[in-house]
Specification:
The complex is a heterodimer. Chain A is α+β, with helices and mostly antiparallel strands. Chain A is built from 17 helices and 14 strands. In chain A, the strands form 5 sheets. Chain A has a 5-stranded mixed beta sheet with strand order 1-2-10-7-3, covered by helices on one side. In chain A, strands 4-14-11 form a 3-stranded antiparallel beta sheet. In chain A, strands 5-6 form a two-stranded antiparallel sheet. Chain B has a 4-stranded antiparallel beta sheet with strand order 2-3-4-8, covered by helices on one side. Classes of the chains: A alpha+beta, B mainly beta. Chains A and B meet through helix 5 and helix 6 of A and loops of B.
């Protein structure tokens, strides 16, 4: 079976398919997607660093199609230089290292509060769903705080964002699933429309208020632009870090010796996160569109073609990462493709890694036993975002004496 | 060991006020700021943006990709305490720009 991102059996474990692409057809026309998939690291560097050939302008339309909640304006992720950096500079200040250097105590408190909820509901030992009760709620709480969205509705956000990302598979769905995606798309728009109006009347100390009052080249962003940017940051902040944490515990399930090393030496956690990001990448691919005819690794790509840089494949490219199929937390992976590259390199890189580090630290502090249950992992319904849809874990909480809280 | 290499001509820099050059396998950005020639790493330490395409204001270059700001003299960054932009000593002799690598 050759690589086809619309076949769930392939996206469940795309890595053998990527390996075949890298060795046999590193730039390959994919009939079902009507797109060229790019599998090798160097070729994807070329794609991502040359926005004058490989435009982002159709990223959102390609992913969301008619389910884009704010289709009337392109979001930041779909803008090319030089227009892109104007909007990016608005969002930047909230996410750069200096801005988030004071976040850890707050993030730690959020992680502890979620675990308090879990032990209140499930007792000090037993099982719970790590995705729905921790990893989906934790990043959205952090981003909600930064952005200014209602933390109380965080479970709904997860449903909406899951549905929006599933829109990438719209070609393969029946009317019932499509109706659900449509409903979520409308719900997210309605929510941000109301939020915009409320912040326009009464600005708060949050990012949405900052977007409303900010000026770019002497002009305010329109309501659609503010909604779009906010939804993008919510999607970016909710899904990716949730999946990074979910993937981490899937990988640790069969590697108790690594868990023990992390418990003995939490300083190993940041590098392990880098390796998780490389080994099983939460964002598997991006979308680019050619503005002129070009040739990539000997393959002629006509103007107006959809191009898919396969980030998950690039991260397994042995020209860049020796023994790429080995999960090695002592590896220094260096420049992975996990956050993309070029002008659209992920804005949330630092925040995401900070969140993941603190979550893992707190989980290991609070639980003396913590392990995903055996059995097949149910992966998300997306070829774009990768992560477990749910992940039942067995746990035993440490007694509260001796656990530093806060 | 440091080596001094001619990397560009002053007249070319004067024309565009910034240039991207390569020397000893390194990518270097040259800027002409208030009559002074400054040389830095060609790529932004944050995410490898091409600094010669950035905008220069008050002695800082703003990267064209993500807008991170770098002091061209000290190498310091407004966005991160940990990252530093590499700078190289420059000599101008006549129309020739030399950089010490």
């Amino acid at each position: 079976m050759s690589y086809d991102p619309l076949v769930p059996a392939i996206t469940e474990n795309p890595y053998p398919h990527y390996a075949k692409l890298r060795s046999d057809t590193p730039v390959k026309w994919i009939e079902s997607m009507q797109a060229f998939a790019v599998a090798r690291y160097d070729d994807n560097m070329t794609v991502l660093q040359n926005a004058d050939i490989y435009s982002s302008s159709k990223f959102w339309p390609a992913l969301l199609g008619e389910y884009d909640p704010v289709p009337e304006v392109p979001p930041m992720i779909s803008l090319d230089p030089p227009g892109h950096v104007r909007i990016r500079k608005l969002a930047n200040p909230a996410f750069v290292p200096r801005a988030i250097s004071g976040f850890p105590p707050k993030i730690r408190t959020i992680a502890h509060a979620l675990i308090d909820d879990i032990t209140a509901q499930h007792g000090t030992a037993g099982q719970f769903d790590f995705v729905w009760e921790f990893s989906a709620l934790f990043p959205v709480t952090v981003v909600a705080d930064v952005l200014g969205v209602d933390v109380a509705r965080r479970s709904e956000f997860k449903h909406w964002v899951d549905d929006l990302l599933a829109a990438g598979n719209r070609a393969s769905y029946g009317p019932e699933r499509l109706a659900q995606i449509d409903k979520s798309s409308k719900a997210i728009r309605t929510y941000f429309d109301a939020l915009y109006e409320s912040r326009r009347r009464e600005p708060q100390a949050d990012l949405i208020s900052a977007f409303i009052t900010a000026e770019v080249d002497g002009e305010h962003l329109t309501k659609s632009e503010v909604m779009n940017l906010s939804i993008l940051l919510l999607i970016g902040g909710v899904e990716t870090t949730t999946n990074l944490l979910g993937i981490t515990w899937v990988l640790l399930r069969d590697r108790p010796e690594i868990v023990q090393r992390l418990r003995d030496n939490p300083a190993l956690i940041p590098n392990m996160i880098e390796e998780v990001l490389r080994f099983d990448t939460p964002v598997q691919m991006l979308f680019r569109h050619t503005l002129k005819p070009t040739v990539l690794n000997g393959v002629a790509i006509p103007e107006g073609s959809l191009v898919l840089p396969l980030l998950g494949s690039s991260n397994r490219d042995d020209s860049q990462f020796p023994n790429p199929d080995v999960f090695d937390i002592d590896r220094k992976p260096g420049q992975t493709m996990s956050f993309g590259n070029g002008a659209h390199y992920c804005l949330g890189t630092f925040l995401s890694k900070m969140e993941a580090r603190i979550a893992i630290e707190v989980l290991l502090e609070r639980f003396e036993e913590f392990k995903a249950q055996d059995g097949p992992v149910k992966w998300m319904d997306s070829y774009f975002a990768r992560g477990p849809k749910s992940l039942p874990v067995t746990f035993k909480a440490r007694s509260r004496e001796g656990v530093a809280h806060g | 060991m440091a080596e001094t290499l001619k990397v560009a001509e002053l007249s070319a820099l004067q024309e565009k006020s910034r240039l991207a050059v390569k020397a000893s396998g390194k990518e270097i950005a040259l800027f002409l700021v208030d009559g002074q020639v400054l040389a830095t790493a060609g790529r932004c330490p944050h995410a490898q943006g091409f600094l010669h395409n950035g905008t220069v204001c008050e002695g800082k270059v703003s990267c064209p990709w993500h807008g991170w700001n770098w002091n061209l003299t000290t190498g310091e960054c407004d966005e991160s305490e940990e990252l530093l932009l590499e700078r190289y000593p420059v000599h101008v002799e006549g129309n020739d720009i030399y950089v010490v690598l």
